[in-house]
Request: fold
Amino acid sequence: MDKILYMVVPCYNEEAVLEETTARLREKFESLIKEDKISPKSKVLYVNDGSKDKTWNLIKQIHEKDKMFRGICLSRNRGHQNAVLCGLMQAKEEADMVISMDADLQDDINAIDEMVDKYHEGFDVVYGVRNSRKTDTFFKRFTAQAYYKMLLFMGVDIVYNHADFRLMSKRVLKEMENYKEVNLFLRGIVPMIGFPSTNVYYERHERFAGESKYPLKKMLHFAFDGITSLSVKPIRLITTVGAGIFFLSICMLIYSIVIHFLGKSLVGWSSLMVSVWALGGLQIFSIGVIGEYIGKIYMETKARPRFIVQEYLNDDEE
Ligand code: UDP
Ligand code: MG
Reply:
């Protein structure tokens, strides 16, 4: 089989796990090559995301010893999503299929076989989906689930319980290149690109060594980015609230008039109440309307492709 597989592995301060990851990937690649599922030209691409420890030196040593492993060093820490993107964009030049995976061995290496099989069956995207969240703390499990539900509510198409362990074919990556946005949320972009896709289920392990590079603050930032870079629904929410309050002001108006004619109100009370509500509602509504246009501008500035052709049947014989 001559299909070349590239693995893209982002590394940020991962000196504690890198050797183990390398050994396991080497073993996996050997068996895949032996089974004739991937080409012997397949590679592992480590992307050093501005690590402050010896990660980059380690990658250089690994590459020195074994040319199956390659390294890219970013100029500074740019975050997980950007590190993965850099690796993907580099890999797509040489590979037929690319799998992105974390360095910490939380993703099950044995799922790679099934991903490659699915690729040979004709799938362009294979999502690694964890079948349980047993290794997570209650807090992480709860917040993650609430977050996925919220994204779905916001109209973002996202695969439930899927992180960034996935296989993508060359043509998917070629299309990804056209998504020019700076705030990149890969999980939301990949389903948007389309092409035949499927899931592979795996057990997520504990981190092999070292600690999570995603403290709560980074996590919240990432979560917020995910929503605001894929959806303009929050803006629409403002418009709805504004319209709602304006409607309430009409009710207030009727109520005030009734109270006024029953002679139970103080002088000036009715007009004050009505104007507070009506003006408040109108203001929020107007902000929402302006927001709608800003939302449109925001989406336009991303200059995303409007369609992607999967196949073209024509009668030109070459
Ligand atoms: N990572 C990165 N840049 C960062 C933070 C993390 O490249 O700024 C990498 C990290 O080395 C690992 C992957 O992203 O390979 C996932 O990070 P981590 O395991 O710390 O996240 P968690 O699994 O705890 O969500
Ligand atoms: Mg991890």
